[in-house]
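Chain and conformation:
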Amino acid sequence: MRCAEALALAAISAATLVLFSVFPTLDIWVSRQFLSEAGFALNTAPALVTIRATIRLSVLAVGLFSLAMLALSLRHPAPLGTPRRVWGAIVLLYLLGPALLVNGLLKELWGRARPADTTPFGGDATFTPPYVVTDQCATNCSFVSGEAAGATALAISLAWMARPLPSRLRLPVATLGVTVAVLAATLRVIKGRHFLSDVILAALFVGTLAAAIACLMRLDRRR
């Protein structure tokens, strides 16, 4: 089942790239909804700054907690009732997704300028659609969103951790994770730090990777 999900998510990712190639100005239109005479004024709103910091800390905390549980599983095979392979899958997802694929490769090599830095929003850089590798940004660029990727990894990790819980608790935990991921992605767009395509594709890439890891590590097994 997870293998089919990975293929489906990969296909959706490709379709999303096609969508933004057919309608490249969709990114501009969405970001423009949050532009004022002062630019992306919400970028410095104190409440949003606090929410963003809380999400970033939560993403880091879940990653470090999972790493600690993986280390503990060397002595106790299923810390907190969660099998060792699940803790290993979470750590692997964090390392391969947000750390390597997103922050290590795409954000450093793609060269897409952030919305606030492009000419449609008063900057000097040229707007480019997400499928174009360019030179409009030198490092830590817009494609894709690292924070959306991290929050997606957090959401998936919480869902995996929640499997030993009673069924009445699994849905609230999953809902919490999805809420955090959506909020993180939304903040990056309304603050002018990422285009819509950056956050959608970040979530899809991490989701595809998670499904592939779940397939290869057979996370559907109970033990």
Remarks:
- The two ends are 17 Å apart (CA to CA).
- The mean pLDDT is 95.
- The CA atoms of residues 144 and 206 lie 11 Å apart.
- Residues 2-216 form a domain with the Vanadium-containing Chloroperoxidase; domain 1 fold (CATH 1.20.144).
